[in-house]
Amino acid sequence: MYILMTDTPKTARVLLIDDDQELGLMLSDFLATDRLHITVCNTGEEGVDSFAANDFDLLILDIMLPGMSGLDVLKKIRQRSQVPIIMLTARGDDIDRIIGLEFGADDYLPKPFNPRELLARIKAILRRAQPQDTDTRHWKLGGIEVDTRTHRAAVDGTPMQLTGTEFEILKSLLETPGEVVSKEQLSERALGRRLLPYDRSIDTHISNLRGKLERAGNKNETIQNQRGVGYLLIPGN
Amino acid sequence: MAGVAGFLYAERMRDAIESFDFGDAMLDASAALEAAGREGLTNWIKDNPTTSAITIFVLDERGHDILDRQVPFGLMRVFRRFREHRRPRQFDDRDPRNLRRSRPHPQLVGADGSVYTFLVSPSRASHSVWTTADARWLLFVIALLVSGIVSWFLATAISGPVRKLRHATVALAGGDLDVRIAESVGKRRDELGMLGRDFDSMAENLQRAATRQIELSRNISHELRSPLARMRVAVELAKQKHGDMPEFERLDSEAERLDALIGQILSYTKLDASPDTDPEPIDLADLIKEVVENVNYECKAEGIDGISVVARIDASPITPGHVDAMISAIENIVRNAVHHSPPESEVKIHLSQDDENALIDVRDSGPGVDDEDLRRLFEPFFRTRESAESKNARGTGLGLAIAKRAVGVNGGTISARNHPDGGLLVRISLPL
User: I need a labelling partner for B195 at 20 to 30 A (CA). Which of A10, A93, B227, B274 fits?
Assistant: First the structure.
């Protein structure tokens, strides 16, 4: 499942999983004015159930949950959905952040966050899913195919389950094969935000993407790292 | 070994002395004395070979042997004590161990009233082989060798554990609370083993106390974050309802400051634990370029005008370490330098290397630090007099303390001094 927004902006449905009840209530108040409808769950189990029963456009997940951990929730949900996920991490806890990104979270925000920053991240991720009419819809290089209209990606016809972020990164690399795309550009396009200092999240997404391409049977094309500059997709022979 | 041999020899001598029965001999001696006085007794002694293991000395009242033999020193002492009817007080006659010592020495009284005391000593003849000069040297050398070997074993048995204990103590004092020595010393059943086990339980207690303290400050910081997160949302809600007011901005910036402080406390306590990851090779030149870029960006974002950070890279050392800690160290030092720089000045970073270390120098053009404050610069929340007086003090007071720990995690050292041309110079030295 991937979110598809129609031309007329409608209320986006956001699931917030956070054990801080009051924070959840205040956040849903704060975000409601921006046409975001927030459902709050206070435990991981509750969150997984609610996610299975409803359609959500975005998930905000506190990694530091009591009981069923945030990482477990992340794994469970990624097994059946590619919904965009923003994790809330403890500042300075790099391990949680890195594992979270490896498990397929799209982006992260250290807690306590500036609420406006959270709003900006949510909007950026929701916006990126809206294809522009002028966009080319179909990209192909070797066996790799990407269709922005249907949001499908495949290698030699074998479909790949990509998160929204991975999809955007692959599309950006496909647009200019053999040319370096800077990490700043990738961050702007895939996450809708500036690259933060010492931000390694793009590198983690790239490594996830490489794994998925390989598992789908891609052998010819390789994503190469140009140290200090960015990444490029090298066409096969 | 030498001790055991000596002991066995002494035992044999004692048995020979104790098994010697004066009974019959005394009757003969008495008869000889009665027949021919002192001369008779002398002849009897000469003629009577007794046994090879012992020698009988006969002493007159003045303590002279009637054959004019040299009486062994120990025997003379016994005689004198016996003559004076005095015994060392500490000997209890009822104690069976002392029976031998309290055995009375037989005496004979001549016709002229002179008293002769009979004393027995291990015979010199029995070890005459050892009395030649060469043999003595040989004995001396053997004794030296044997006692040397024994001493060496004793010394290693004692000094080995003591050395281990000392190393452990130094390590503990240096902050390594993981050090334990029961493995190597604690199995001994002597005092050293006890000391080793005591040391371990002390280290254990220290470690528990330290862990508790770290846990406590970490928990406090974590707990502070939830209300802080709610506060920030509350401020935003208030803004939505009542519009922007300068007070809201102030609330926001104070909350941000609290957040930064808590973040710093968390990274400080976290650096105390051993890192979760293995060290990896770090390209310091790349890292410094990244830090410079980011701090310059920060300066612009925070409205710190005119201060720029410039780096001079004179080497490209690769050192093993933890990237995040390394970034944190360099960044905190550079930020500190920026905060203490006058407007329109430069913070200079210089990367170089010598034979063993990579050197990162960070120099500002601020007023420097009083010499007596230099030592305390890396203590948490330490403020120099000058920065305590300045009203718009920036930073959390933890930056340099974090830098020191972060450098320590990477196996390096950090030092600060005033540059002769002005400004503070902080140097990180990292082993290559």
Answer: B274
Q: Are A111 and A91 in contact (CB under 8 A)?
A: yes
ipTM entry: 0.81
Contacts of A96 in chain B (CB under 8 A): none
Q: Which residues of chain B have pLDDT under 70?
A: 1-22, 48-53, 84-104, 122-133, 186, 273-274, 276, 386-395
Amino acid at B385: R
Note whether A92 contacts B259, CB cutoff 8 Å: no
Residues B426, B289 contacting (CB under 8 angstroms): no
Question: Within 10 Å of residue B282's Cβ, how many Cβ atoms?
Answer: 21
Helix (H) or strand (E) holding B282: strand B280-283
Look at the block and give the residue holding tokens 């956001």: A14
pLDDT tens per residue across span B24-38: 777 777 888 888 888
Query: Whose CA is closest to B277, among B320, B337, B231, B318?
Result: B320
Superfamily of domain B280-431: Histidine kinase-like ATPase, C-terminal domain (3.30.565.10)
Nearest C-alpha neighbor of B127 from the set B292, B270, B16:
B16
| Domain boundaries B2-131, corresponding CATH code | 3.30.450
| CA B235 – CA B231 distance, rounded (Å) | 6
Instruction: Decide if B338 contacts B400 (C-beta within 8 A).
Output: no
Q: Do A26 and B222 touch (CB under 8 A)?
A: no
Task: Give start and end residues of each alpha helix (H) in B48-132.
Answer: 73-83, 99-102
> DSSP for B229-280?
HHHHHHHHHHHHHH---HHHHHHHHHHHHHHHHHHHHHHHHHTTSPPSS--E
**CA atoms B257, B259, B263, B269: torsion sign:** positive
Considering CB atoms only, which of B229, B255, B286 is closest to A23? B229
Q: Which of A95, A110, A115 sits opposite B233 (nearest CB)?
A: A115
Q: Is B369 exposed, middle or buried (0-12, 13-18, 19+ CB in 10 A)?
A: buried
Q: What is the pLDDT of residue B219?
A: 82
The three-class DSSP label of residue A38 is strand
Which helix (H) or strand (E) covers residue B117, if one does?
A: strand B115-122
Nearest chain A residue to B233 by CA: give it: A115
CB within 8 A of B97, min separation 6: which ones?
none
What SS3 string covers A142-177?
CCEEEECCCCEEEECCEEECCCHHHHHHHHHHHHCC
Q: Which of A16, A18, A23 to mutate to test the interface with B (most CBs of B within 10 A)?
A: A23
B233 and A30 within 8 Å at the Cβ level: the answer is yes
User: Which of B255, B266, B297 shows the shortest C-beta gap to A91?
Assistant: B266
Residue spans per domain, chain B: 2-131, 157-273, 280-431
Give pLDDT, residue B350.
Answer: 94
Which strand (E) or helix (H) includes residue B46?
helix B22-47
Burial class (CB in 10 A: 0-12, 13-18, 19+), A50: middle
CATH number of B157-273: 1.10.287.130
Reported as a single tens digit per residue, the pLDDT across B73-82 is 777 877 777 7
Report chain A residues whose CB lies below 8 A from the CB of B276.
Answer: 95
Strand partners, B119: B57
Give the position of tokens 């970073």.
B349
Which of B255, B263, B276 has its CB closest to that of A95?
Answer: B276
pTM above 0.95, yes or no: no
